UniProtKB/TrEMBL annotation:
Sorted UniProt keywords: NADP, Oxidoreductase
Organism classification: Eukaryota, Fungi, Dikarya, Basidiomycota, Agaricomycotina
Chain positions recorded as substrate binding sites: 108
Record-annotated NADP-dependent oxidoreductase domain positions: 37-276
GO molecular-function term, one example from the UniProt record: oxidoreductase activity, acting on the CH-OH group of donors, NAD or NADP as acceptor
Site description Lowers pKa of active site Tyr, residues in chain: 78
Keyword Oxidoreductase (UniProt): yes
Gene3D superfamilies per record: NADP-dependent oxidoreductase domain
Designated name of the protein: NADP-dependent oxidoreductase domain-containing protein
């Protein structure tokens, strides 16, 4: 059984998901179907899509073409309707494109609701749960800063189950307040951009040598070539963080599907990754994340 993480509403989400919003899949119907089929065939039964990616219909097609039962796949989508009056029709459109209700619906950004209306937006989503439209669907948020979460907590009778964020060791210092607040309210962090230290940081920074040492240890124990991306993913899921990654490469998809069966990191190894990670600050997806939520005073590299 693939590893899963328990949400505060009682449901369990597969700990590793495959997203069709990056890597050339954004807005690309046919490639999103082909890669989605490959991800499912590799055994990754968790797809992260969004209204904004224009890949919800491709998600439905991929599940159909892979011959997988809908109920065996976890689907997260996100909405970007800015207007309270059309939230209901927007949600119905998500369900129509996906061919079924999603398992999890997120407000994609705190900037989706018009300024000052986040609480009202959340209340409308709750009403849709109560009237049956979103019955059985978990509700969450994405890219929410502490102040955005507080806007929801002021009104929520159903708390968000997740906050999906750019999450990796080089944003830990910056995210600490939002992670602490989330933990206090039982919110699970979902990570996107996890591989930023390896793929987008100019040198790999101070965690690189730590990950290399751990990869060598696990490779020696398993007799398999374990790469740094797998070590970083293990680190995140051991912290009870859901990882949403992506790939169009069958070799990497196979690696992602095998992470579950790798030996765990020790507490010392986890601590070493974080101590090194907290020495720098490096973010790839900037958006609104530093607005009224300042960056830590750290260099981007040592
Ligand atoms: N909520 C939001 O605002 C938000 C924002 C961004 C992303 N997301 C979601 O998160 C998903 C993933 O985002 P991301 O692309 O930033 O995630 P990521 O995990 O940081 O990077 C994914 C990239 O890593 C490469 N990769 C995968 N396994 C690898 C390995 N073992 N070694 C080397 N490279 C490897 C893949 O390229 P190959 O094809 O070459 O394997 C892929 O393009 C998106 O598709 C989307 O669903 C959400």
């Amino acid at each position: 059984m693939p590893r899963s993480i328990k949400l505060s509403d009682g449901k369990s989400i597969p700990a590793i998901g495959w997203g069709n919003g990056t890597g050339g899949l954004f807005g690309n119907h046919d490639p999103a179907i082909t890669s989605g089929v490959e991800a499912l065939k590799a055994g990754i039964y968790h797809i992260d899509t969004a209204e904004g990616y224009k890949t919800e219909q491709a998600t439905f097609e991929a599940i159909k073409q892979a011959g997988v039962k809908r109920e065996d796949v976890w689907i997260t989508t996100k909405n970007i309707s800015p207007d309270r009056e059309v939230i209901r029709s927007n949600v119905l459109e998500r369900i129509e494109k996906l061919g079924s209700k999603p398992d999890l619906l997120l407000i994609h950004f705190p900037t989706v609701p018009q300024q000052g209306t986040t609480g009202q937006f959340w209340t409308i989503l709750e009403e849709l749960v109560h009237d049956g439209t979103l019955e059985g669907v978990s509700l969450g948020v994405s890219n929410f800063r502490p102040q955005d979460l507080e806007d929801v907590f002021k009104v929520a009778t159903i708390k968000p189950v997740v906050n999906q964020l750019e999450y990796h060791p080089y944003v830990l210092e910056h995210l600490q307040p939002v992670l602490d607040l989330g933990e206090k309210h039982g919110i699970i962090t979902e990570s996107y951009g996890l591989l930023t230290p390896l793929l987008r940081h100019p040198t790999g920074g101070p965690i690189k040598s730590v990950l290399e040492k751990i990869a060598k240890r696990i490779s020696g124990e398993t007799g398999k070539e374990i790469d740094l991306a797998s070590v970083l993913t293990l680190w995140a899921i051991q912290k009870n963080v859901v990882v949403v990654t992506s790939s169009r490469n069958p070799v990497n998809l196979k690696k992602i599907s095998e992470i579950d069966s790798l030996p765990e990191l020790s507490q010392d190894e986890i601590r070493e990754i974080e101590e090194a990670g907290r020495k720098v600050h490096f973010r790839h997806y900037k958006m609104h994340m530093t607005k009224d939520y300042p960056n830590p005073e750290l260099p981007e590299d040592l």
